[in-house]
């Protein structure tokens, strides 16, 4: 009996009426499309009910590792939950998000549906917001952000690809009418996701647009009327960032592009504090 009372007391201390009172990161599963999917969830201490949610998507061949991003500390400072879903394996045995790469031609996974299921699951089980949901991702995770912008913009308040691209296929198949704010951070010397794009698909990822063209497409879709260019102070990594901000869009929407001069394929070496800058953008759309 004493052991049972002690356990109940611990549960009550961890979970208040309005949310988690002690900081924690947990690993959980969710069944979607007949597949058991895994995710990690970080809940800051004293997180209120209906708190914002940021979904962070790993890169190709990566995994749901919070330490690779550093977003938990940003969440603790600003009061939002962070979810790190785990991608499934393709024909190469690499984990990632099904965005239509040649190697994913036979991949049966519908990651758009999975993320919709995940958002609903987190709302029901943890009381997280359905309205203030944001998604960012590195590389393949960034590519997934563009797919979500085209196929399910209604699910997200804003999207933040890092070193991602928008494929020609996504562009041609985009029939969505709802604009969504978008913020891309990208290095001009990225050897994996080229700043100048790859319209022939010679890099093996399929054909994709030059980064400025992709961002410009979303600026036009959001009907942004102004384009401001600023040079930011050099970051701790010594990299210079040119900030392109498209403003005056529908419902106040904005589209940003941080052009990291000489930047490579990186989440952490971007010339800025990537996590803080992403939240700075996302927080503009918390309603």
What does this 3D model show about the protein?
There is one protein chain. The protein has 287 residues and is an alpha/beta fold. The chain has a single domain, classed as 3-Layer(aba) Sandwich (Rossmann fold), CATH 3.40.50. Helix content is 26%, strand content 26%. It is built from 7 helices and 14 strands. The strands form 3 sheets. Strands 3-4-6-5-9-10-11-14-13-12 form a 10-stranded mixed beta sheet, with helices on both faces. It has a two-stranded antiparallel ribbon with strand order 1-2. β12 and β13 form a beta hairpin. The longest helix has 16 residues.
Descriptive key words:
287 residues; alpha/beta; Rossmann fold; 10-stranded mixed beta sheet; two-stranded antiparallel ribbon; 14 strands; 26% helix
